[in-house]
């Protein structure tokens, strides 16, 4: 078995179409078929069910697809780390995050990292919670900053920040900080919320706020981007409820009304894989407790 066999298999496993996979790999379809056959002969298992109409992964193929993606991503990370070591650098930490983590947590951590370990580089990707967990499993990220309550058992977690919520309204809205008394004042309003694609647990937490106030909100828009929500609120297309930390640095015609008196809280967690052996990650994790 050679690395090209795994790369070809991974592409076909995702495309499930020989012609499309071959085109992506810049090889002919017969050549791809031959490579897959060689891999199946090597493993002594059938990886694909083939008919004239479709290509489908077998149970063994589904397992190998997950593992092959992890192995190839890990190999890429090892190669890059080796090159950085040769240049006298300490390595790289690949960081995923939800938008609110960029308000204070990540900038502060990066500042500490630069001061203590200037030879460690970082790469940043803003992703929703689900995509971050998937990237951790496939060794595309070293650490993720998510708003979740539970994560898969193979992952380690540490709460890095707990936040209350705030109501967001247009500055021209008749209800402001000065005359706000209860969320029930917004019973007939349209609400703009983070989509449950952002995090189902987070979405359920928000919905429990409305349950406590005895009404079900009219949700006019959903988004996974805070800035999109704020823009819609600014245009008076609805009001929103977001983590209070998101108000930092916002320069729009909107107002944040604290809901800190409510029982609901949201936690930002750092999450990483228990089996991650990246030395640079270990040094980064030390900063979480500083």
Automatic annotation (TrEMBL):
Taxonomic superkingdom = Bacteria
Q: Which UniProt keywords apply?
A: Coiled coil, DNA-binding, Transcription, Transcription regulation
Q: List, for all copies, the residue spans of the domain called HTH lysR-type.
A: 1-58
UniProt-listed SUPFAM superfamilies: Periplasmic binding protein-like II, Winged helix' DNA-binding domain
**What is the name of the protein in this document?**
LysR family transcriptional regulator
* Secretion signal, residue range per the UniProt entry: none
Which residue stretches, if any, does this entry annotate as coiled coil?
22-92
Specify the taxonomic lineage: Bacteria, Pseudomonadati, Bacteroidota, Cytophagia, Cytophagales
The entry assigns this protein to a family as follows: Belongs to the LysR transcriptional regulatory family.
Matches recorded under InterPro entries? LysR_HTH_N, LysR_subst-bd, WH-like_DNA-bd_sf, WH_DNA-bd_sf
KW Transcription (keyword) present = yes
């Amino acid at each position: 078995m050679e690395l090209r066999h795994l790369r070809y298999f991974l592409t076909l496993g995702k495309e499930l179409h020989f012609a499309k996979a071959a085109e992506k790999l810049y090889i002919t379809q017969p050549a791809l078929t031959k490579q897959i056959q060689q891999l199946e002969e090597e493993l002594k298992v059938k990886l694909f069910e083939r008919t004239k109409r479709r290509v489908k992964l077998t149970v063994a193929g589904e397992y190998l697809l997950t593992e092959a993606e992890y192995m190839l991503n890990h190999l890429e990370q090892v190669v890059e780390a080796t090159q950085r070591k040769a240049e006298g650098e300490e390595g790289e930490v690949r960081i995923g995050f939800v938008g609110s983590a960029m308000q204070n947590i990540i900038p502060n951590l990066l500042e500490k990292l630069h001061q203590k370990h200037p030879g460690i580089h970082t790469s940043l990707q803003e992703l929703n919670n689900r995509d971050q967990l998937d990237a951790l499993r496939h060794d595309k990220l070293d650490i993720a900053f998510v708003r979740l309550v539970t994560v898969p058992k193979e992952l380690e977690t540490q709460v890095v920040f707990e936040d209350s919520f705030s109501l967001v309204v247009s500055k021209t809205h008749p209800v402001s900080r000065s005359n706000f008394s209860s969320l029930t004042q917004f019973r007939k309003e349209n609400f703009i919320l983070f989509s449950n694609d952002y995090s189902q647990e987070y979405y359920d937490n928000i919905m429990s706020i409305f349950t406590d106030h005895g009404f079900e909100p009219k949700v006019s828009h959903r988004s996974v981007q805070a800035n999109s929500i704020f823009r819609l609120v600014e245009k008076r297309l609805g009001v929103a409820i977001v983590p209070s930390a998101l108000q930092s640095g916002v320069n729009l015609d909107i107002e944040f009304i604290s809901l800190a008196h409510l029982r609901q809280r949201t936690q930002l967690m750092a999450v990483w894989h228990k089996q991650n052996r990246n030395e640079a990650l270990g040094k980064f994790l030390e900063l979480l407790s500083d």
